[in-house]
Amino acid sequence: NGLDTPTTVHWHGVRIDNRMDGVAHLTQPPVAPGESFDYRFTVPDAGTFWYHPHVHGSGPQVARGLYGLLIVEETDTVDVDHDIPLVFDDWRVDDNGQIDTASFGNLHDAAHAGRLGNILTINGKFDGTVRARAGERLRLRIASTCNARVLQLDFSALDPWLVAVDGQPVSPARLEPAALELGPGQRVDLIADLDGEPGSRLVVAETSGEPFEAMAFELSGDPGKPVRKETPPALPANPVRIPDGKPQRTVDLVMAGGAMSFIPEAVYKGQTYDGRTLAMDHGMVWAFNGTAGMPEKPFLSASAGEPVAIRLVNETLWPHAMHLHGHHFVELDGSGAPSRVLRDTILVAPREEKTIALVADNPGRWMLHCHMLEHQASGMETWFEVLT
């Protein structure tokens, strides 16, 4: 650790040994300045993952760019011409073009949407141009490393296939126009054929606010290749267990607080406080199941291999990107049937309920938290345990 503050590394979406998960005070002590910690693990799944600090209040470290992609390749080569990572991040900069450090820890941000940036980069650059030949087939590994912004990306100019979500393969399907919504921490893999005239540009827009060009695919003037017509084959499945129907046990996780819906009181570090004291004295403005911040006891204990469901109840007026450590899960529909789309992070809209289900087959103490990092730091974090 070459920083002047403690840190760790969390391997987001990677189903590894609990000791290597990188959550300060839950799976390991934080790594102090000048000290080191060796992460050693075997990756069980191919896919697009990422890593970032995971100490309490890690938002400033991530907002300064302390993160990266972790790409685990399939055993067999995927038939594409280029494999291209696209890491989207918004940055809050001041009038001098520097990262706005004065706004770190802003309680107004924490109680609203979180830390929203005012510029967007792709792979750390302002110029999001990808240059290729007409007719080439691309695999696009798209990740959102934003602290809080929910991105709305329009890839319709490419008419791509969706082939993976949060690192886990899905049955290839055309992406609906303007339908790519990414919360903080989420990833998707697309396969796209560059169907355009040599010398043309295929634009990707960001449309969460006033639409603007986020990036473009610039086709060279060279003669192109014939565009492939066939649907890409499915990526090989990873060894992730999925519940067979709705699990017998469902545990509720109720989200409360935030601007315009402040919590009247909550437990914080074992003591009950009124909402004003929580906010002004402790910087806590959100709660899970009546507790702000990490509780002493897990909200869920499961036996190894037990299928469980978690009903996420968002009673707030803000969206939350809920991230589960150590496991992937599926969403249940209204009848309790599981989808086939595995995720490690799911967006829950204001006043919305979603039920997720997983097989708790990775022993240890695992976090569940909002990946709007300012929301996490101000109350939206808890943990569950999988017993051996």
List the helices and strands and how they pair.
Elements: E1 10-12, E2 47-52, H1 59-63, E3 68-72, E4 82-91, H2 107-111, E5 119-122, E6 129-132, E7 137-144, E8 151-154, E9 161-165, E10 168-174, E11 180-182, E12 187-193, E13 201-206, E14 212-219, E15 250-257, E16 265-268, E17 271-274, H3 275-282, E18 286-288, E19 300-303, E20 306-314, E21 320-324, E22 330-332, E23 345-348, E24 353-360, E25 364-370, H4 373-377, E26 381-387
Parallel strand pairs: 4-7, 6-14, 15-20, 19-26
Antiparallel strand pairs: 1-2, 2-3, 4-5, 7-12, 8-11, 8-13, 9-10, 9-12, 13-14, 15-18, 16-17, 20-24, 21-23, 21-25, 22-24, 25-26
Summarize the structure.
The model has no long low-confidence stretch (mean pLDDT 96).
Write down how many β-strands occur, each being a DSSP E stretch of 2 or more residues.
Answer: 26
Runs with pLDDT <50, length 5+? Answer: none
Write the H/E string, N to C: EEHEEHEEEEEEEEEEEEEHEEEEEEEEHE
**Tally of helical segments:** 4
Kindly name the structural category: mainly beta
Sheet having the most strands: 6 strands, mixed
How do the strands of the widest beta sheet line up side by side?
5-4-7-12-9-10
* Ends distance: 32 Å
- Beta percentage is 35-45%
Arithmetic mean of pLDDT: 96
Global morphology: globular
> What share of the residues lie within helices?
under 10%
What is the C-alpha radius of gyration, as a whole number of Å? 21 Å
